[in-house]
Amino acid sequence: MAAAVAGALLSSSCAFAQGSAANATSATNAITQERQICTPLADNQSVSQASASLPARPRRIVVLEFMFAEDLAALGMTPVGMADPEYYPVWIGYDNARLASVPDVGTRQEPSLEAIAALKPDLILGVGLRHAPIFAALERIAPTVLFKYGPNFTEDGAKVTQLDWGRTILRSIGCLTGRADAARAVEAKVDAGFARDAQRLAQAGRRGEQVAWLQELGLPDRYWAFTGNSTAAGVARALGLNLWPAEPTREGTAYVSSEDLLKKPDLTVLFVSATERDVPLATKLDSPIWRFVPARSAGRVGLVERNIWGFGGPMSALRLADTMTDTLLSLPAPVIKK
Hints:
The chain is α/β, with parallel strands linked by helices.
């Protein structure tokens, strides 16, 4: 009896050891594969500053920008703290349920070091443009990575947009958290959505159309136009459209007024609201000049309700693509004079 029990225990121990070895081998292979995919942060052009030592699998992450909260949610993770959480549903809105109860750590411009420290994070993600002055203070709390706000317009001779940068940041966060495979799956979903929308536009004969993506600012006849290096430009390019204005700017936006649209007979204007729903487009376009704008007189100004954030991650870009496509197809095509 004792021999039988001893034999059973020995057999069980061997099976456990073999299973453990197999699991260890699998984990080692996964880490090796990730390392082959994930470049060192020192070689990552989207990173402006990073702590010398970073955790292998951070799980308590504080994010100081909407894009990083969106990216973590897309990767199936929930941050332990985030900046401006009350405004995330207003401007991003991706996976609100996951992020609804995430603790507030202050504003994106002025995060609270005390609130961050109280959460005992093992990684902090911020933006160099805003958080470089407090990098040392953040690093004293936890290892910190700061990403650049936006790319140069060209790299190695190729045009680069904030969409390209956002995808790079998603991949980087996937690598930092051990979820490189999940990041690739997100990108595949985004690419499939872009292809679907591009096909809809091509089938409707709208490929190559010139569009403007204007953001209402609550100022009289003054708007942000997203420019040639913005996320909107990257989305437009993926859909086979041409975004106006094409020139790059530091932040991917430029101020325009209705007067700037007067000499654009073929332009279609997609106008992003900053007010609550049910405010008609005519109420927004109330300057005397708007009635002379060709796009308006031809019925080619489409109202896009708020919650379409031009500075989000790839999932925001997919929503922007769907909305850009739906809105454009609801408007008449420009009549090209022969």
